[in-house]
Each structure stands twice: as C-alpha cells, then as structure tokens.
Design brief:
Residues 210-240 are annotated as: Disordered. Pfam families: DAO (PF01266). InterPro entries: FAD-dep_OxRdtase (IPR006076), FAD/NAD-bd_sf (IPR036188). Its cofactor is FAD. The chain folds into two domains: 2-73 and 182-272 and 383-422, FAD/NAD(P)-binding domain (3-Layer(bba) Sandwich), CATH 3.50.50.60; 120-173 and 274-368, D-Amino Acid Oxidase, subunit A, domain 2 (D-Amino Acid Oxidase, Chain A, domain 2, 2-Layer Sandwich). By secondary structure, the chain is of the alpha+beta class. It contains nine helices and 21 strands. Strands 1, 2, 9, 10, 11, 12, 13, 20 and 21 form a nine-stranded mixed sheet that branches. Strands 14, 16, 17, 18 and 19 form a five-stranded antiparallel sheet that branches. It has a four-stranded mixed sheet with strand order 6-7-5-15. Helix 2 runs parallel beside helix 6 (180-193) and helix 2 packs parallel to helix 9.
Length: 427
C-alpha cells in the first residue's frame, strides 16, 4: 500500500522530469517514477537517500521491508563511532570510516544527535597482543593519520578503573558513542524535509533493468539499466505486488543485500551471504565503574574485534559482541549458553567484574561475504566493503558486506554513492 501510494504520488509529468547530469547515459528520465530508488532503510540507506535527495530537481524513494527504519543491524550493534584504526590505508573501510567519523561528529553537533567522545583503550595481555598494538600504532601514525597514544603502566594503574593491561595499552583518542536511533530519526527527518519518500513494509520481490529494447533485452545495444529500472514491491508478506520505476537503483539492503544482488545478476554471478551473530551481555553492578571503551587487542584471523566493553550514553556497561556463525539471519535470540565463554574473555582485561551481574541482553547480525572472514585488513580472509557501480549495467550502485564500521562510515558511503552517480559529492 505504501509503495503504491508513493508511486502514484511521484508519477510526474514529462515537463517537470529531466535527467540530472547523471554520470551515465540515461533515456529513462521522462518515464521513471523516481530518479533514485534506495533499497534498505538502515542507517546506510538513510544516509544515501538523504544525500541523493539533495540533488536539484530529483526525486528519491527509500524502500524498506520492515514497518520502521533501522530495525536490523543498524539498531543491534555497539553504537560506537569508530576511529578507523584497524584497516589498511587503501581499504574502503579505512577511508570511509575516517571520513565518516568526521562527518558524523559534525552532523551530531549540527542537529543535536546525542553522542559522547569517550575514547577507547586497546589492552594487551601478552607479547603477541602487544605486537598487534604496535602494528596498529604504526599504521595510525605512519599511514592513516589517526590520533593514538601509548598509555603508560602507571596511568593504567592510576586511571584504569580496574582494567588489566599486562603487556600495554593503546588509546584511540577519537572513538566515541552515538545514539543510533536518534541518528536514524535525524536522517529520516532530513530526507523527508527534502521531499524524500519512505515506503515502509515494502519488501522488494523483483528487479528488472530496462534497456531501449525493453526489460533486459538481448536485442538492444544499450546496457541493462540504461532506460531505468522496474522494481516489484510487495505490500507485506503475501500482499499485492506493485511496480515502480526509477532511473537509478542503490542496493543498500544490508542483510538482504545479496538477495537483491541475486535478483539482478545471472546465476553464475550470484553470491552467498554468511551471518555472524553477535551476542551482547548487560552489566548491572555499580563496580567496577568504567568511563571509556575497552577493547582487547585484536587476535589474528578473528572475525570480530573481541568481546569488548562498551557504554551507552547513560553510562551503562555492556559486553560484546562475540561471534557465533548461524544460518538464519532472523535468529536474534541471545544465546545464553555463550555467557561463560564471554566471562572468560572479559576477565582477561577486567578481573574484578562481578560475574553474577552479567545477563544476556540482545543480539545483532553482521552480513559477511565470506565465512570466518578476518576483521583486520592485515589478516588473510579480510573482506572490504563493496561500494561500486556494477560493470555491465547503468544506474546500479551495489553495496555488499556493509558491516562494522558501517554506522560510522554511513555518511561517507553516501558521499561516495553520490560521486558514483554524479561524478562529484552532492552537498
């Protein structure tokens, strides 16, 4: 229903619709319902939709399968503003995280989104972990330009609030936390103020690139998508199907991104997504009282950054996420049986933790392009973000494997999508 209303609302006349200097040849301008269709209403999709809605004379629809925005990975994470310290300088994760961090702090200041610059200690307990911190320090100071500093043993003892760092501690000075729900509401509001349309409860069930000879015509010399895109949307599970058209499509569907990708490409180019569930555990005791984020030094080949200590804006402590590989992306029940394993990891850097005050809290899901993919760019199996115009198509920007640090990177990803479509960032 929402999708049909959105389509009817924006069936504009040929006198008011024209190509907006798109970075490709399009013949779809006078037929399409929208200039841009962004699939996926998480924080990344919201940021992209808001960015594209600023393009003069354009129209943008954000298509979300759930009844509200940001109900999947975007609302089930640590809410950390990452500094960008783990990834090689040539990786998208590094570039977009560092740029996104600055954009995010600026947006929060401008629009009153709650956040806090907490800083973060990375702590090492043995020689191998110390070497990992030294590699991060060298990467940050020599290549990335991200502020970090060594924390002396004396400072750990005096200001560590019970944290153990037997082999050293490295501080990330620009790490923070943000209210992710307020951030997404802010982005949604800015998008709608720019006349953007949000189509909720509208799962995409089919996509067809158009060329001058018709949908994916083999007889046409123009590439698929050069005449726009048809998008079939269901009015909820088992509901009626409605079709909207757009000049461009952005796949920002997160956990559903590979499914959207596979709707478009031939069988030989289809991908598989792997699901890394992260269990979180809340802490109800008043001691120890920690005022900053605490992360264990990264372990080589690990699929995450370790069971770390994070804070919410009220100062409440939570631990997680761990990494539990699952087959079902909807399996979001916290696995309480993993609590003892989490306790063992937490006690390595916070021996004074009251284990009786730890209880299962919530779980999130990370979309991985490879099973047991490594978190650090220096490890084998590292999977970078994919943000690209797909070769052989016109008007399709594809985002795959957008996990951590996706929230931090969201505004920079939006800038990049704008450049891919228009040749420069639209502001």
């Amino acid at each position: 229903m929402l999708a049909r209303r959105a389509t009817r609302l924006f069936r504009l006349s040929s006198q008011t619709r024209h190509a907006q200097a798109l970075n490709f040849s399009s013949t779809a301008a006078v037929q399409a319902d929208f200039t841009h269709a962004v699939i996926g209403g998480g924080v990344v999709g919201l940021a992209i939709a808001r960015q594209l809605s600023l393009q003069p004379g354009s129209s943008t629809v954000l298509i979300e399968r759930h009844s509200a925005v940001g109900t999947e990975t975007s609302s089930r994470n640590s809410e950390v503003i990452h500094a960008g310290i783990y990834y090689g300088k040539d990786s998208l994760k590094a570039k977009l995280c560092i740029r996104g961090k600055h954009l995010l702090y600026a947006l929060c200041d401008k629009h009153g989104v709650p956040y806090r610059r907490t800083g973060k200690w990375l702590v090492a307990q043995n020689h191998a972990q110390r070497e990992a911190l030294e590699r991060i320090h060298a990467l940050c100071t020599q290549e990335l330009g991200v502020p970090v500093r060594w924390v002396s043993g004396k400072e750990v003892d005096e200001r560590g609030e019970g944290v153990l760092a037997a082999a050293g501690a490295l501080e990330s000075l620009t790490t923070g936390i943000v209210d992710s729900h307020s951030l997404m509401l802010c982005l949604q509001g800015l998008f709608e103020e720019a006349s953007g349309v949000v189509a909720l409860s509208s799962p995409v069930v089919g996509i067809r690139p158009l060329s001058s000879g018709g949908p994916s015509s083999s007889s046409s010399s123009s590439p698929p998508g050069s005449a726009g895109w048809e998008i079939d949307v269901s009015d909820g599970p088992g509901g009626d199907i409605s079709t909207m058209t757009a000049e461009t499509v952005v796949n920002a569907a997160g956990l559903g991104s590979v499914a959207v990708h596979n709707m478009i490409v031939p069988p030989a180019q289809r991908k598989q997504l792997f699901y890394a569930k992260g269990n979180y555990f809340s802490y109800s005791a008043s001691r120890p009282k920690i005022s900053r984020l605490i992360y264990p030094a990264p372990e080589p080949g690990a699929s995450g950054l370790g069971t770390h200590l994070t804070l919410d804006l009220a100062g409440r402590i939570r631990f997680g996420p761990d990494v539990e590989w699952v087959d079902d992306p909807n399996d979001l029940t916290v696995n309480a049986s993993r609590l003892q394993q989490a306790v063992a990891e937490i006690q390595k850097y916070l021996p004074g933790v009251d284990t009786s005050a730890l209880v299962p809290d919530y779980a999130g899901m990370r979309p991985k392009l490879a099973s047991k993919g490594a978190a650090s760019a220096t490890d084998k199996g590292f999977e970078d973000f994919i943000v690209r115009k797909e070769q052989g198509y016109e008007g399709w920007v594809n985002l795959l494997g957008i996990e951590s640090p996706g929230l931090t990177s969201s505004l920079a990803i939006a800038e990049m999508v704008g450049r891919l479509l228009y040749g420069q960032a639209n502001s």
